[in-house]
TrEMBL record:
<dbReference type="InterPro" id="IPR036388">
    <property type="entry name" value="WH-like_DNA-bd_sf"/>
</dbReference>
<keyword id="KW-0804">Transcription</keyword>
<keyword id="KW-0805">Transcription regulation</keyword>
<dbReference type="GO" id="GO:0003677">
    <property type="term" value="F:DNA binding"/>
</dbReference>
<protein>
    <submittedName>
        <fullName>MarR family winged helix-turn-helix transcriptional regulator</fullName>
    </submittedName>
</protein>
<dbReference type="Pfam" id="PF12802">
    <property type="entry name" value="MarR_2"/>
</dbReference>
<dbReference type="InterPro" id="IPR036390">
    <property type="entry name" value="WH_DNA-bd_sf"/>
</dbReference>
<keyword id="KW-0238">DNA-binding</keyword>
<feature type="domain" description="HTH marR-type">
    <location>
        <begin position="12"/>
        <end position="144"/>
    </location>
</feature>
<dbReference type="GO" id="GO:0003700">
    <property type="term" value="F:DNA-binding transcription factor activity"/>
</dbReference>
<dbReference type="InterPro" id="IPR000835">
    <property type="entry name" value="HTH_MarR-typ"/>
</dbReference>
Length: 147
């Protein structure tokens, strides 16, 4: 990360800059650590969302995750091409397809979660366990506020 001397205190202390810089750094760490699993951080997010849930349609999944439909189709196409998810007819309504994890998807999810945990630990390396947990809780409060 650039030093405050390089950026000046007005930019270096802005929440927009700090959050963006942390995200850029975390994306780079995820790219590095997830490489062996063959998925991206966004794809991992979809697998984490699908894991242990009742199967939903891709439209429902997109809406719940806050991802536009076109982007979700691309993510699911990629995951399906990798045999990590499958689109199947809904048992309750044959006109509707639902998205489910495959056995390969579950195995990839386990390995990728470990890799993601490593990336997050590296990003938060300057924080002790209590501080890292506090940061997560504070960010949860920020993102869960009413719209």
């Amino acid at each position: 990360m650039a030093r405050e001397d390089d950026l000046g205190p007005r930019l270096a202390g802005r929440l927009t800059y700090l959050l963006k810089r942390a995200l850029v750094d975390l994306d780079a760490l995820h790219e590095q650590h997830l490489e062996s699993s063959g998925i991206s951080a966004r794809e991992l997010g979809v697998l984490l969302f699908l894991d242990g849930r009742e199967p939903e349609s891709q439209q429902q999944t997109a809406a719940r995750m806050g991802i536009d439909r076109t982007t979700m189709v691309g993510l699911l196409d990629s995951l399906e091409d990798k045999a990590l998810v499958a689109r199947r007819p809904d048992a309750a309504d044959r006109r509707r397809n639902v998205v489910v994890l495959t056995d390969t998807g579950r195995a990839t999810l386990e390995a990728a979660t470990i890799a993601s945990d490593t990336a997050e630990r590296e990003l938060l390396g300057e924080l002790d366990d209590r501080e890292a947990a506090q940061l997560r809780e504070l960010l949860k409060r920020v993102v869960s506020r009413p719209s």
